[in-house]
Design a protein that fits this description.
Mean pLDDT: 88
Radius of gyration: 12 Å
Helix content: under 10%
Shape: globular
Structural class: mainly beta
Strand order of the largest sheet: 1-5-4
Oligomer: single chain
Low-confidence stretches: none
Number of helices: 0
Length: 63
């Protein structure tokens, strides 16, 4: 599943990065640490500012 999230435009070279996931209703968003290898810059990103719009590929595996 692909989820849109906000994060820093300048990413570290490897490891984890903190992203903001917004649930879309009020103050229900969350900051989450995610692996860089699961991120791609979204086509919807405007290429400006210090934050960027990313597509996060979730690897949900039901137990």
């Amino acid at each position: 599943m692909t989820i849109l999230a906000l994060g820093p435009r300048e990413l570290p070279g490897s490891g984890l990065v903190e992203l903001w996931f917004d649930a879309g209703s009020g103050w229900t968003g969350q900051r989450v640490m995610v692996p860089l290898k699961q991120l791609t810059l979204s086509d919807r990103d405007r290429g400006e500012g210090v934050t960027a719009l990313y597509e996060y590929e979730s690897s949900y595996c039901p137990g």
